[in-house]
DNA sequence: CCGGTTTATCGTCATGTCGACGATAAAGAG
DNA sequence: CTCTTTATCGTCGACATGACGATAAACCGG
């Protein structure tokens, strides 16, 4: 039995006459286009990814990355933002959203030719309350356990792995790590982000020198907090810098 | 008049009954999926991009990036390699091919919803003879003149710009610049690649120190050539290294 | 109130890389 | 043979980095 999308290809051929705009060739294969999201946050001292439980076949009751089909007239990033809002109850757009890659292996979806554009999103914990759908249908999962057993639907384990690698590489040479932080944060909290994303330990003194020495990375507020214990730490806000130059290189990963 | 792909959406709904694999929701919009290629090479002391002249509407007789529609059962990278072979007469696959990004603005193609996955390809000059189609239908164009006037079809000027930025960034921290070189080449020839891609001048002595000092970047052959004039230069071959660490940072661009 | 603990922040020092540039080597051109 | 061109090796100062000492400023338990 041909898949619905393939069978509809024949109807494509004669649906439209010529004209200045031209028409699509008759043998173009229609595909279904979806977006999937690797939404990462730092919660409970761990890097976690948002997963949803599938309610329908295929892969019913399996965990998957949040996503859905692109609607007519909708741009790709627009669809990603909409899915994010629908599946997480997110009011604000995520602090960072970028296209990751497109996955189009012919057999990646048993329903037919479905090509998905994956996006990487980073958000602070508090802005992602998962209040959208019922609690059982979506949850945060530590990345250390999410991809390994490959219990994920479709090729989502591979997409997650690519998203993680992108995030780990990107905080080296860009300032996106602050996307994990709330409005005001300390240097130590930012350092914890790096440590959890990289699974490695960083020297507090060298880290402090690096981030405070990079122009426009952090904006000091002049206020202090003791919420992390010890001597009061100054609070900072995200700066305008987008790139880190020189980069902050990650050490060889050692699991704690 | 609805576009052919949109009108075919209705036929999608009832084409397939249930089953373990599930079926696509009835309101999924079918899209046409294409691949487009930013194929770069260094020719005539310039960084050049391969363009093809469109023979059909829309944008008939305008220059465009080579590309075409993905066929059934074909993976994305597979389609890119096939299009490359068809439109350039290339026997070998390109020395470097990577996915660039996906472009899916709803109105990017007047014929309907066409989403394109762009690829970046780098190749040495001699391996790309453009013997495939007739000579008038495709040509090499210096990148300095290709994107500026934006005479390119569709959103190809933006795709080209993204591809150029990707190539310029990538040779900083990876070893892909050797993809522009033939089997055996001198350090000066590789340096010329960097200079032309970056539009800047590099110090021959520091460049030599950097590339010969990076492990597995270049493999010395022990043979020499004088084809560049002056003192004989040693010939090297591509090494196994894929990343450059630390990166070779590009200076601020100054046009010669 | 006081010493111990915790965390923040500042400094120091050796090392490595980089940019600028001098010096020498080895070919061809005239 | 000398001049020009290019290749390759060295040197030097500026700067970023990793390792780590030292001090500051809160808290806690007594």
UniProtKB/TrEMBL annotation, chains A, B:
Enzyme class: hydrolase
Superkingdom in the source lineage: Bacteria
Alphabetical UniProt keywords: Hydrolase
Matches recorded under Gene3D superfamilies: Nucleoside Triphosphate Pyrophosphohydrolase (3.90.79.10), Winged helix-like DNA-binding domain superfamily/Winged helix DNA-binding domain (1.10.10.10)
Annotated PROSITE patterns: NUDIX, NUDIX_BOX
Pfam families to which the protein is assigned, alphabetical: NUDIX (PF00293), WHD_NrtR (PF21906)
Region feature Disordered, mapped onto this chain: 1-23
Keyword Hydrolase: yes
Annotated Nudix hydrolase domain residues: 30-166
CDD domains cross-referenced by the UniProt entry: NUDIX_NadM_like
Keyword Hydrolase attached: yes
This enzyme's EC code(s): 3.6.1.55
GO molecular function: 8-oxo-7,8-dihydrodeoxyguanosine triphosphate pyrophosphatase activity
Family: Belongs to the Nudix hydrolase family.
Entry protein name: ADP-ribose pyrophosphatase
